[in-house]
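Holo prediction — flavin-adenine dinucleotide.
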Amino acid sequence: MTQLDQTPDVVVIGGGPAGSTTATMLARKGVRVLLLERDRFPRHHVGESLLPASMPVLEELGVMPAMEKAGFLPKYGATMVWGKDSTPWSWYFRETSRQYPSSFQVSRPEFDQLLLENSRANGVDVREGCRVVEIHSNGGKTTGVGYVSDDGTAGSAHCSLVVDASGQGGILGRTLNLRRYDPFFQNLAVYAYFEGAQRLPQPDETNIFIESYSNGWFWNIPLHTGQTGVGVVVDSKTGQQGIQEFGLEGFLTRQISQAPHTAEMLRNARLTEGPFVVKDWSYTCEPMVGDGHILVGDAACFVDPLFSSGVHLALMGGVMAAALAATTLKGSDIAKPAGRVYEELYLQEYRHFREMARLFYTSNLNADSYFWEARRLLGGDETFSPRHAFIQAVAGQPPRGYERVVLEQGQAPEGFSHSVKAVEDERAFRRAKLEAALDQTDGKEPAIYQAVPCLSPEVSIERQPVLGEGEFVWGQVITSGGGSSGNGQSTPCSPLVAMLVSQIDGVTPVADLLAGLVQGRDENQAAQIAQSVLTALQILYVDGSIEEMKGL
Ligand SMILES: Cc1cc2nc3c(=O)[nH]c(=O)nc-3n(C[C@H](O)[C@H](O)[C@H](O)COP(=O)(O)OP(=O)(O)OC[C@H]3O[C@@H](n4cnc5c(N)ncnc54)[C@H](O)[C@@H]3O)c2cc1C
């Protein structure tokens, strides 16, 4: 039996965080979206621990009241047994973000359902129990999907755009053979849910707890249901052999007994759900955007779960995929370059989390075993030079958050630590120099006005698509170090900053640059522009985009 063909504007495959976010954001723009989800919600899913970086997206989706009503536990940070010593240590999001000092530990069946209901409320045609089994294409362009619902009915949908948000299953990536596995992260995870587990002492009661031990590492996530999610990440081969020998539960129990903190927390606990096993290999799909389709969430890429980055990537990716879809549906010239920017932004985030995880794995010194030795050796591979690692991990910025923790608690590769120190010293020196040049002493004009800025040879202004209000629009970006396609950075900037940078020629002093920029403006506007220009010069000089201020 075949259902009537459907003709929405966009088909979204999968109703996890990536799919529901994409669908909601698109439907709000008046796009007709059909979302096909294989399962019926609530359905089980791993991945309970969220990052504060997701909070703005959750706010934008309008689900915060529902999140609070659900009673999810707040997550203020992480407590870890990792690095140089075996005593647990904690760090808190408030150390790096005042605006978002916490996130949530969510029960995924509830969280994902809440997001999917929000899609429905925003006008998405959500069909649960509908598995996409076929991708339709015509002359290399994706044109729709074929699906089967759980009562056996077949259907098909023809559309302008297919968004693949089908998670690790990644139907489009597999069909088109786009997936590239990462040789460094080929792990396996076994996890289960327990009742009656002991929690960390206050104030860390709701932190995620991570314990490294000889065969890998454990996570322990307290949930508002009273359950605790506990999982272990081990080498793929070791895990497979162990599971074959002892069975899933036997294997998990044996691993728990080797991790003293986790074992103690679970001493009086009762297993209530699971264990489950999941392949935990990192990968990217390239390209993530093709003719008639976009990949998002785990369907686009997956990075080791050490930093709980999966849901963040799915939500952030969902916002970007919706913007790209909206731009593409308009059929304008910007769509193709916007697709490249989408992929570059996505890979930038992927590389950051990947590099942080790699640094953590290679710098854990409190466990000696095959698992850790193999990761330390791989981490020292030529293709991952310390300098490369530094750029990927912190994008040339001073290390914050987890990056800082690696330096303090672990033993980062020597070259990495040197790079960090060199950058920090240079930035502090430049900041002090510029502050002195902005000082107005004895009624004299600050020295900065006569200084001549010279751009670093790697820096340029490019016209590129940037993420605007729900779609990609043309904007200006400052690119450095090979731009977004290499290991460098691409930062969107205001028209004023773009104009300033494009006029820096290595011979014109700041006073003349300013005079040109304020020409024709009244006194008030001129003062505001001057202030903004001086601030921009300061930022560009400290971050190295301006290589030199001649005359200072
Ligand atoms: C061991 C482990 C631990 C993790 N821990 C964390 C964590 O603590 N925090 C965190 O943020 N992330 C974590 N993650 C990652 C996180 O689970 C994922 O990144 C996140 O769920 C991705 O969301 P998504 O929407 O892309 O995919 P999913 O959430 O997987 O959603 C995909 C949806 O597509 C549906 N689907 C699949 N195929 C089809 C089809 N053919 N037709 C229709 N529907 C289909 C599925 O049923 C599913 O509902 C972890 C991952 C692993 C492996």
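READOUT: Residues 13-19, 36-39, 45-50, 131-132, 165-167, 169, 171, 189, 231, 278, 280, 297-299, 305, 308, 310-312, 314 surround flavin-adenine dinucleotide (CB under 6 Å).
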